[in-house]
Amino acid sequence: MVKGKRVGIVGAGNVGSTIAYSLAMLGSCHEIILRDNKIEIAKGKALDMSQAAAAVRSHSIVTVAESMADMTDCDVVVITAGSPRLPGMSRDDLLMINAKVTREVIEGVAKYSPNAIVIMVSNPLDAMTYVALRESGFDRSRVIGMAGVLDSARMAAFIQEKLGYGGGQIRASVMGGHGDDMVPLPRYSTVAGVPLSDVLTHEEIDEIVQRTRKGGAEIVALLQTGSAYYAPAKATAIMVEAILKDTKQIHPCAVYLEGEYGFNDVVSGVPVMLGANGAEKIIEVTLNETEKAMFAASCKSVQGLIDTLNANKFFEGAK
Ligand SMILES: NC(=O)c1ccc[n+]([C@@H]2O[C@H](COP(=O)([O-])OP(=O)(O)OC[C@H]3O[C@@H](n4cnc5c(N)ncnc54)[C@H](O)[C@@H]3O)[C@@H](O)[C@H]2O)c1
Ligand SMILES: O=C(O)C[C@H](O)C(=O)O
């Protein structure tokens, strides 16, 4: 438990409330502050979670901010506000609706928690991270998108399922944007340190890569009413803890690139050292030509979304 730390969570729906629950159970911080337009529901969840925290002797408390002005001086703010996709939709279909929500929310964060580190979760993730960065005026080290921890966990779960062993010993690696052209990296994935290619065939690895890319859609199709939230919430909580505890551990995160991997003015998923100051270091992994081409294609997709925002004069304040 790191005393006195405050974590704000905007959007207390499926992902936001599950992040709050996870942090409360871990006792990661002193106070978790929920903010949602559905205030009564947020209040009910906060009470329920505070009581769960008491049951496990966690001294985290869960409170509700009735407006962004009540969510002050947070160390970390997680943004999950906005719409999830439904079957048949792509994450990119959420671009304009969630960009407006993100702008509204980040203005409040910048005003009332000016020193916070922001973890963006709303989709389309890389474009929303870009919006949050631009609209907050924060340094790029303080606006970080969550996706790579989730996508890598999915890939690890699929590897375990395929192998039938190795649970807890699998390190899977996914870079690039959080879209269908994300870049799973079998070459950087291992089972107890053993390269994937030593334990799985090329065809099996390819199947895992394709399933990882569609991992979110697979769950959307099953749930029918929204998207995944247990693994996304746990992945976010891992990032929040790394920041609060200043672990300096490396996690795949979506960050604004300024020349890294040869890209500028775009957000993409890369290995990042997380610590008290947010994204403290971007690690540049050696990619082969095929991997470089896939990473470039993924950055191009994100760039396309940023171009759409520009074409709609979003950054000029269009409503
Ligand atoms: N990055 C990832 O890997 C990842 C993973 C899962 C979900 N997501 C995304 O996270 C977002 C949330 O997903 P969810 O399943 O929790 O959805 P949800 O509908 O359950 O919750 C969203 C919440 O946001 C609230 N909200 C909307 N506008 C708001 C505003 N202006 N201020 C405060 N609250 C507001 C809604 O009332 C709702 O409770 C979606 O965009 C989804 O696509 C991203
Ligand atoms: O798939 C979605 O729309 C939600 C999220 O991005 C996920 O990957 O689970």
Automatic annotation (TrEMBL):
Catalytic reactions on record: (S)-malate + NAD(+) = oxaloacetate + NADH + H(+)
Pfam families per UniProt: Ldh_1_C, Ldh_1_N
Matching HAMAP family: Malate_dehydrog_3 (MF_00487)
Q: Residue limits of the Lactate/malate dehydrogenase N-terminal domain?
A: 6-145
The question of whether Lipid biosynthesis is a record keyword is answered with no
* SUPFAM superfamilies tied to this protein: LDH C-terminal domain-like, NAD(P)-binding Rossmann-fold domains
What residue range is the signal peptide?
Answer: none
Gene Ontology terms: biological process: lactate metabolic process; tricarboxylic acid cycle
Q: What is this protein identified as? A: Malate dehydrogenase
Organism expressing this protein natively: Sulfuricurvum kujiense (strain ATCC BAA-921 / DSM 16994 / JCM 11577 / YK-1)
